[in-house]
Specification:
Layout lengths: L5 H8 L1 H4 L7 H21 L6 H25 L5 H24 L5 H23 L12 H20 L5 E3 L2 E3 L1 H33 L1
Antiparallel strand pairs: 1-2
Helix pairs in contact: 3-4, 3-5, 4-7, 5-6, 6-8, 7-8
């Protein structure tokens, strides 16, 4: 399942923190993550003109991960596990993914075609994951390009891109291809997403067969 399992590590780390926010509606945190992702995308877009903005985008991604962890833990603590809650937990995340990735796709450092194909690929990954619920099996979280995997990859890309920008160049050459870090990231999202979609389809088909045979 890729880095999805780190979600439970984060939950253990924030377990004691949850009691201080038990009074808070977890939906507020879910919707707040959209605003944080929007700021992330804006910072990434303008990082071509000011590399320091990448440091802000790094911090915003960490903040989004914290919000995404706390909202679920608070909902569990408040025993608010409902169908509507699942919608609120899932849909804002998709908006957050889009806002963040559009910042990468339209950043002057990124090839626009690669960036937009990456955005579409990521949306297909999310759709495939949720498709499991639609056909009566579990939500699929396989990697290697699930949400947590993508956020960690983006954090690494931001650090590398920042390093290269402050050193005075914005591209690196690999296999005779000279592209920015965000281009390489987009390329990974494109190919990694196809593998992820295939893994999630396999997971769904396996569960469907087990369910039908039972």
């Amino acid at each position: 399942m890729g880095l999805y399992q780190t979600k439970f590590w984060f939950r253990n780390k924030f377990k004691n923190l949850t009691k201080y926010f038990i009074w808070l509606n977890p939906d507020i945190l879910s919707y707040s993550a959209i605003g944080v992702a929007l700021f992330t995308g804006v910072c990434i877009y303008y990082s071509a003109y000011n590399a320091q903005l990448l440091l802000f985008s790094f911090a915003f991604i960490i903040l989004r991960m914290v919000l995404n962890t706390l909202d679920g833990m608070i909902a569990i603590a408040q025993r608010k596990k409902t169908a509507i809650g699942e919608i609120v937990n899932a849909l804002p995340d998709r908006y957050a993914d889009i806002f963040t990735m559009l910042g990468v796709a339209f950043c002057p450092l990124t090839n626009k075609i690669l960036g937009m194909i990456a955005v579409i690929s990521i949306l297909l990954v999310s759709y495939t994951g949720m498709l499991g619920k639609a056909v009566g099996v579990s939500w699929q979280h396989q990697g290697p390009a699930g949400k947590v995997d993508r956020l960690f990859a983006l954090l690494i890309a931001i650090i590398l891109q920042y390093y290269f920008l402050i050193k005075g160049f914005n591209s690196i050459k690999i296999f005779n291809l000279k592209m920015s870090v965000f281009d390489w990231l987009s390329l990974w999202f494109i190919f990694g997403s196809q593998i992820t979609i295939l893994n999630r389809l396999k997971g769904m088909i396996k569960e469907i067969k087990e369910k039908e045979s039972a």
